[in-house]
Amino acid sequence: MTSVIDDIYDAYDTLEELKYFIEAIERWDINNIDYLPEYMKLFYVALLDVYNEIEEEMEKQGYHYRLHYAVEAFITWTNGVLMKNQVQAYFGEAKWFHEGQIPTMEEHMRITLPSSGYCFLTTLSFMGMGEIVTKEAFHWVISDPKIITASSVIARFMDDMTSHKFEQKRGHVASGIECYMKQYGVSEEQVYNEFHNQIMNAWMDIHQECLKPTAVPMPLLNHVLNLSRVMDVSYKEGDCYTHVGKVMKNNIRSLLIDSTL
User: Fold this and answer.
1) How many other CB atoms are there within 10 angstroms of residue 194's CB atom?
2) pLDDT value of residue 78
3) Dist CA 175 CA 164 (whole Å)
């Protein structure tokens, strides 16, 4: 669902349509979609259907309260309230694109760290983990802990380095590469070196958080760690998320079809 929203915001909508869409997301009500374009209506209905299925499963397990965190994690990321937060972050990027802006790195990171989706994905991954996940764990994940920020940095910079040339050719919001080059007057190669250094520092932060797990149990931190590993696998040899090739297909087959576990 987040991938579809990302594509909607990146390439397919006018800014006015995006404003209508974010209003619908904030209302979270199937009765408020008449003003949406037809393709948005289809997606919006499918989105609410997915969350209705999650709600039914959480009720069966006695964890209905968790749905609140999953919904808020989708609505206003940059405004402090959480797929609502994800959409707010995507809207910020879309506004830059439609207005032809190249923001500063500080502005870029404030919006694009949330739009990497790692806080949202971590929140959603906690939904079915049983008794080990408490309300305090959900409060922790939305409080911007160091390990979530580090995972988001890895996701953001690896994505930018491997996909920005293709995305700029097709028409896309400025990536961190363009923002850094403009702000500091450096070459693309220098930006790559800086991003590699920041990625290494982010991995060090993750390792430190896992070596001394105190805020939440280690199984929860493992979810964050594994999401970071997914990004590493997906982008280490190029943008294998957008351009799925033999390596990624073999990875998926090994994990889901030919698994020996």
Assistant:
1) 16
2) 30
3) 6
In contact, 113 and 126? CB cutoff 8 Å: no
* Euclidean distance between CA atoms 102 and 205, whole angstroms: 29
User: Are the beta carbons of 38 and 57 closer than 8 angstroms?
Assistant: no
Q: pLDDT digit string (tens) for 9-36?
A: 665 557 677 777 777 877 888 887 888 8
Burial class of residue 20 (count of CB atoms within 10 Å of its CB; 0-12, 13-18, 19+): middle
Question: 89-134, pLDDT tens digit by residue?
Answer: 555 666 666 666 788 888 888 777 877 778 888 888 898 898 999 9
User: In this structure, are residues 157 and 191 in contact, taking their beta carbons and an 8 Å threshold?
Assistant: no
How many angstroms separate the Cα of 104 from the Cα of each of 112, 186, 195, 228? 12, 14, 15, 25
The pTM assigned to this predicted structure is 0.78
Nearest by Cα to 152 from 238, 89, 64: 89
- Residue 155 vs residues 107, 150, 162, 211: alpha-carbon distances, Å: 17, 9, 11, 21
Integer Cα distance of 25 and 71 in angstroms: 10
Contact (Cβ atoms closer than 8 angstroms) between residue 136 and residue 151: no
Q: Give pLDDT, residue 185.
A: 94
Token output for 101: 């802006």
